[in-house]
Request: fold
Amino acid sequence: MIQPPPAQIGMPLEEVETPALIIDLDAFESNLAQMAEAVAKSTAKLRPHAKTHKCPAVARRQVALGAVGVCCQKVSEAEAMVAGGIRDVLVSNQIVGRRKLARLLALAREARVAVCVDDAENVRQLAEAAAAEHLRLDVLVEIDVGANRCGVQPGKEALALARTIADRPSLRFAGLQAYQGRAQHIREWDGRRQAIDGAIAKTRDTLELLRADGLDCEIVGGAGTGTFAFEAASGVYNELQAGSYVFMDADYGRNLKRDGSANDEFRQSLFVYATVMSKPVAGRAMLDAGLKAMSVDSGFPTVADLADAKVVRASDEHAVMELGPGAANLSIGTKLKLVPGHCDPTVNMYDWYVCVRGGTVEALWPITARGVGY
Amino acid sequence: MIQPPPAQIGMPLEEVETPALIIDLDAFESNLAQMAEAVAKSTAKLRPHAKTHKCPAVARRQVALGAVGVCCQKVSEAEAMVAGGIRDVLVSNQIVGRRKLARLLALAREARVAVCVDDAENVRQLAEAAAAEHLRLDVLVEIDVGANRCGVQPGKEALALARTIADRPSLRFAGLQAYQGRAQHIREWDGRRQAIDGAIAKTRDTLELLRADGLDCEIVGGAGTGTFAFEAASGVYNELQAGSYVFMDADYGRNLKRDGSANDEFRQSLFVYATVMSKPVAGRAMLDAGLKAMSVDSGFPTVADLADAKVVRASDEHAVMELGPGAANLSIGTKLKLVPGHCDPTVNMYDWYVCVRGGTVEALWPITARGVGY
Reply:
């Protein structure tokens, strides 16, 4: 059973069914342009991460403004992007399992597809699967530059793994994946800068080691919305993988600029639209959007258009707001825009973006890669 | 774009694509039977909450074992249940907005539908919508028995609202909704009992006040998996709305019995199935299931079939596990069963249940009400 979209094109925002996922098109387009401009000043290219939006309609707009392609985290995301017209996809993650590899290779017949590895046995499986399909697949070595997640150690370990790729005729060594995910949400500018300085140094050392061994890196990829300016200026990274900048969220909104002020480089363009559905006592109101309409892993959403209201609790289908004096008159039926705590896993719950400009629904974009991806 | 199911019927569990949502059918059926037996000993009936499973195939099995119907939290859930053959649905929540009311009333032509209110203006809107459709809709007054969420105050406030329902020819006053959600996860038995004793007293007092005013309650509903035995024995509640008992989760697993031991009344039947996709250093491994495959609002999942592995962090598409000595030999490609922290919002992310018995996929059930419900 597929739910109909929560809106129709031409409808006023106030008539959109709730909960709905709203894109403020003016803010969204401003973010796309802002990033394109920032990247154009550097020697790097943009390969934005599609795990944020999971939507080819967004990816096509990024490519139109200069992005070389997109990153994906899952084969299913890559399938959705290629089906939606994207011609160059880097799966910035390890892909394990016979059927997933088969699907990845099928996709490599339709578009340029690259994948990351951090394990020699995985390289062997990729090589055999590609050889059986008479394909040559681009493979990057992921190195751990401080995120403590996936990735081999920079330096010799990375070189050894790169060599196993280069030795396989069905694979092509295509570069390094060096994303410092943990740096993205360090609040202070200087803390982010230090973390990325470390990542840059590790990546540079590894590149030199590889080069000395005759291995060139076509792609040196990394960076996120919190740190991309550092990687862009490094002269080491040549592809920037920021994703959240298109939408922003409450968590990224808490990052600070160099002078300690709030970051305003990108505008909040993504909102969960919700209705006040109960106000049983003074000072408390319930919204019809809870844990099944927004991820709270990075904190509760903030209320965008009502200063004196705060989400203090969430259950499956409710968010509980405390109302200060300025919100005391809030009435049942009022619809509010919330800024989700974390955009990516919130987007993942929805089937549609309701794209709004000037208070009117201008477009509906299906989130074709939403859900649990294989 | 709809993803194909992650499994085929007859497939061994080990071949199921990950992340997948697994139902252990033996444990699931044991839970259904255990609850049916417990409720049969009381004067109450079971009206399990379908917000947990969002799946008519599960609801039909509950009804076959004696449930009078189901609860839903959203009109979209109710639509999915009626479409799947359920004939009696209580929307245990407030429904606000013209189009949602229209859909609720359309549904009331196909099945017995009831809805909750906690606001006189909402009663007026329901009454006018029902009158326009020449329907008579069952309406319950929700009272706040300690959850501090929706619901009018017990006693006089409830009576006043019930009177506004009874005064409307297009509505029928059908009873009280009196769910104490906050009591469900109090760890100690005695704490749960005290909280429900309070809810029972408030509900009883309100029932007496209503009765003195000539208003009978066909339904007195409430209770969840953590407390239903108390409501069942109360002689006050006549419908029990537990939902999570069909699956259980890590959070409910932390509730204690009267003697302080771990609760073992219901078995864990729901699992997120995940693959080890990276093990870059000794003592750490990554699973391919993160924030988009399980809700972490009630804590990280536990690893079901590996004692010495612990999920310590989750990002969009990864769970990071720390491995003790007993899990040191874990290899990339191994698939593990995780117990989600909170079953309801985890289920909500998936399109399919992969139902397994004796290590083989026996059925695939579509989760037709999954996603953001309107």
Remarks:
- Chain A touches chain B through 73 residues (CB under 8 Å).
- The domain at 42-248 of chain A is CATH 3.20.20.10 (TIM Barrel).
- The longest strand of chain A covers residues 270-281.
